[in-house]
Structures are given as structure tokens and as C-alpha cells.
């Protein structure tokens, strides 16, 4: 046992990664494990470099993956080398054999929309992430469900696609 858990994140320039890291650190603080953090800046090259280091040095008790891209070959390689791992909020589809945790995107989209409706709003916009991603599709579906249940027609002009960055909100506003 190395006493180290590795965590791979795409960046530290958004609250999403910071909050995941904060939660992991909170849990690890109750153990004898330490966190080793690696940032990929959304590049496949840095992800592959990280994987090579993990396999060559073998000093990890497990891996937490917050990946920008679905990298099935990483899962296969980690499994082949008997490195325990979990995927957080995968942006693509995962097989049933891949351990993962994720956000309740559909419910989040619904609850946020229901809250605005409860305040009397009837013209409610949404800025999703890239619609090619499952999490964006789920949030949009929750939004649509809440509007439908309230008898509010969906206005396609109020649905915008973003990039999970704060400046997207300003650009789409």
C-alpha cells in the first residue's frame, strides 16, 4: 500500500473540478490516504503521460478519473494492471463493468426549473453544455419535463448550448 490515491482532472479553472476535489479531500481526511492530483488541461497527451507514470511507478492505491473524453483504453489498461479506479461524471456512455459515480443531471435540471416556476417565472432559458454530452442532454430533459408539467411550452429560442465555462453564460445571454 502506497497510501496515495491519484486523481486526474481536466483543469482547476472551474468550480466543478474544485468541488469534486474538495469532496475527495474531505473523505480522505478521515483516512491515512493522501491525494496526488494531476491536471490534464483537456489534452489526451497529458492524460497518456499520466497513465504512463502511474504504470511505471506503481505507487498508487487507486485512481479517481474525471476525464474530458471517454477513454476506454485507460480503463482496460488500469484493470489489466490491477489498479483500482472509479470514473466521476463520465461525459460519455460507460459499460456496466466500469465503476462510476455521477451527478443527478436530469433531476438537477428539473429542480432548478421548478424553482424558477415556483417564483412565478414563465419564460425560462437554459444554457446547456455541449449537447453531444449525456449530462447536457439529461439536464435539458429535466428542464423540458418541468416546463411540460407546468403547462409551459418549450421555446427553442431559450435553449442555448455552452461549454461549461462561466464566460459561456455571458456569451449566450
Q: What are the secondary-structure elements, in order, as H or E? A: EHEHEHEEHEHEH
Termini separation (Å)?
Answer: 50 Å
Taking the sheet with the most strands, its summary is: 5 strands, parallel
The total beta strand count reads: 7
Broad structural category: alpha/beta
Which percent bin holds the helix content?
Answer: 40-55%
Strand content: 15-25%
Rounded radius of gyration (Å): 19 Å
Q: How many H/I helices?
A: 6
The overall pLDDT average reads: 88
Low-confidence stretches: none
- In what order do the strands lie side by side in the largest sheet? 2-1-3-4-5
Shape: elongated
Question: Could you name the key traits of this structure?
Answer:
173 residues; alpha/beta; two-stranded parallel ribbon; 5-stranded parallel beta sheet; elongated; 16% strand; 43% helix
Amino acid at each position: 500500500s502506497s497510501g496515495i490515491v491519484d486523481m486526474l482532472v481536466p483543469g482547476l479553472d472551474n468550480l466543478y473540478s474544485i468541488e469534486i476535489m474538495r469532496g475527495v479531500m474531505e473523505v480522505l481526511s478521515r483516512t491515512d490516504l493522501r491525494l496526488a492530483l494531476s491536471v490534464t488541461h483537456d489534452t489526451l497527451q497529458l492524460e497518456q503521460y499520466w497513465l504512463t507514470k502511474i504504470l511505471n511507478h506503481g505507487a498508487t492505491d487507486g485512481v479517481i478519473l474525471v476525464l474530458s473524453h471517454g477513454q476506454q483504453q485507460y480503463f482496460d489498461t488500469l484493470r489489466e494492471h490491477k489498479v483500482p479506479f472509479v470514473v466521476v461524471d463520465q461525459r460519455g456512455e460507460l459499460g456496466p463493468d466500469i465503476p462510476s459515480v455521477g451527478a443527478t443531471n436530469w433531476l438537477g435540471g428539473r429542480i432548478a426549473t421548478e424553482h424558477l416556476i415556483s417564483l412565478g417565472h414563465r419564460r425560462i432559458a437554459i444554457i446547456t453544455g455541449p449537447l453531444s454530452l449525456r449530462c447536457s442532454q439529461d439536464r435539458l430533459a429535466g428542464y423540458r419535463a418541468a416546463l411540460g408539467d407546468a403547462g409551459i411550452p418549450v421555446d427553442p429560442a431559450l435553449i442555448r448550448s455552452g461549454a461549461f465555462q462561466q464566460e459561456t453564460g455571458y456569451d449566450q445571454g
